[in-house]
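RECORD TYPE: inverse folding
INPUT: structure tokens
STRUCTURE:
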């Protein structure tokens, strides 16, 4: 047997043994799952973040609605502004939203019967509070709602005493 034939025989034997490893796929699914699991968890947490952002926006919309309705029940513009602010604070607390900064602006148009009261609520929420992702930064949600002042509501006693009612 020559050296060349021995080398050919050894090469065939090595290729045959390596071919077994190339064709054997046992454990590949487990390896792929192990590598993909952190990415799937991250994707799931991102979906949760998006859902929480949408939920927070809906809650801020509801807070603006409640504040506008409370403002229309007031008798004076200053009382309407105070009612809108206190209602917004209470509604945010009951919704479980903690604003880093909260601004409530109220346009009363004199609170005349038939006029419209518009309340704008602006709330800056820290993103790290929304999920376990530890996302840095904050997002500002702003919502406005207009509510009509009742046309048939009674007037204050001061207006009736003055004879213009």
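DESIGNED SEQUENCE:
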């Amino acid at each position: 047997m020559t050296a060349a034939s021995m080398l050919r025989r050894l090469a065939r034997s090595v290729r045959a043994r390596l071919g077994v490893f190339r064709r054997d796929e046992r454990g590949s699914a487990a390896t792929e799952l192990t590598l993909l699991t952190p990415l799937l968890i991250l994707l799931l947490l991102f979906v949760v973040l998006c859902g929480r952002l949408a939920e927070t926006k809906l809650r801020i919309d509801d807070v603006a609605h409640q504040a506008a309705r409370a403002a229309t029940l007031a008798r004076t513009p200053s009382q309407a502004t105070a009612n809108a602010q206190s209602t917004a604070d209470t509604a945010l607390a009951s919704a479980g939203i903690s604003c880093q900064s909260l601004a409530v602006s109220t346009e009363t148009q004199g609170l005349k019967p038939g006029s419209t009261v518009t309340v704008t609520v602006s709330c800056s929420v820290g993103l790290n509070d929304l999920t376990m992702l530890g996302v840095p930064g904050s997002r500002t949600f702003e919502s406005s709602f207009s509510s009509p002042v009742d046309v048939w509501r009674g007037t204050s006693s001061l207006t009736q005493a003055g004879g213009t009612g």
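NOTES: Residues 38-149 form one domain.
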